[in-house]
Amino acid sequence: MKRPTLSRCVKSGLFALAGLVLAASASAIEYRSVATPVAVFYDTPSAQGKKLFLVKESTPLEVLVKVEGWTKVRDAEGTMAWIENKALSTRRTVVVTATRADVKKSASNDAPLVFQAEKWVALELVESGMTGWAKVKHKDGASGYVRLTQIWGL
């Protein structure tokens, strides 16, 4: 029986690593938004856990782990905590992370300005998938396109 050479072992390892990277990138990041007027972040998946923060309605959250009745999430600032599933919605929102985001009539820098949103304002996600832009809607009904570099939650 022929022993594998070092280069053959390295190549096999690289192919395995490449497969893991591709599998990880193929899985989509899941987001939810806070459905209730105020929700609580906990340090453990239990109502008996330490209450860390209050989170307001429409705040987008990245889903990290799900266990019975609870979801571990990350917010736009990187805070990780547990939240009860009943406080989450499948409604998609994004939050402005720029000092001020320009929301345009179309997905173009030259398009007329519809409105500006201040930092930490949550906007409903209407459509994504455009290169560099997302269509959003403000709670007052105004809608338009915002640069992806000015928001978090996609």
Mean pLDDT: 87
CATH H-level superfamily of the largest domain? SH3 Domains
Structural class: mainly beta
User: What is the total tally of β strands?
Assistant: 14
Largest beta sheet: strand ordering:
6-5-4-1-7
State the helix count.
Answer: 1
Topology, element by element:
Blueprint: H1 6-26, E1 31-34, E2 38-42, E3 51-56, E4 60-67, E5 70-74, E6 80-84, E7 88-89, E8 93-96, E9 100-104, E10 113-118, E11 122-130, E12 133-137, E13 143-147, E14 151-152
Antiparallel strand pairs: 1-4, 1-7, 2-3, 4-5, 5-6, 8-11, 8-14, 9-10, 11-12, 12-13
Write a structural description.
- This protein has 154 residues and is mainly beta.
- It has one helix and 14 strands; from the N terminus they run H-E-E-E-E-E-E-E-E-E-E-E-E-E-E.
- The protein has one helix spanning 6-26, and strands at 31-34, 38-42, 51-56, 60-67, 70-74, 80-84, 88-89, 93-96, 100-104, 113-118, 122-130, 133-137, 143-147, 151-152.
- It has a five-stranded antiparallel sheet, with no helix packed on it. A five-stranded antiparallel sheet has the order 13-12-11-8-14, with no helix packed on it. The chain has a two-stranded antiparallel ribbon with strand order 2-3.
- The model is unreliable at 9-26 (pLDDT under 50).
